[in-house]
Amino acid sequence: MRITPSLAVVLLASAASATPYEGNYLPLNYYPNAVSCHDAGKPEGLTWIRGDTLRMIEMPCTLSAPTPVRGMEATLYDALCTYSDGVTQTGGRVMLMQAPGELWVIWDGYIEHWMRCD
Length: 118
Known about the structure:
Elements: H1 5-17, E1 23-27, E2 47-50, E3 53-55, E4 60-68, E5 74-82, E6 88-99, E7 102-107, E8 110-116
Antiparallel strand pairs: 1-2, 1-8, 2-3, 3-4, 4-5, 5-6, 6-7, 7-8
Keywords: Signal
Signal peptide: 1-18
């Protein structure tokens, strides 16, 4: 495959937008008895992270200004979230923290526990 300058820009942009948190998840806060990702039923029950988008059940959030958290496998982001009714709400800050097979999503005053489904 021959890489042209425009293809190189696309490849670099794609690589730059990838995060270690990318993937599909089951939010255990909403499915407390789940033992596998199939317990969510329809795919709408899954949440996902792709590039700078964190898609939760009721709203997508755009993540920006990633800041690594010193001494932890975690990143702090600014988040701008839009509810399903189309009203935009500033989500404030969110920290994503990895553990084997799971992700902790920490908002101001609230923590979500997600099971990795990839």
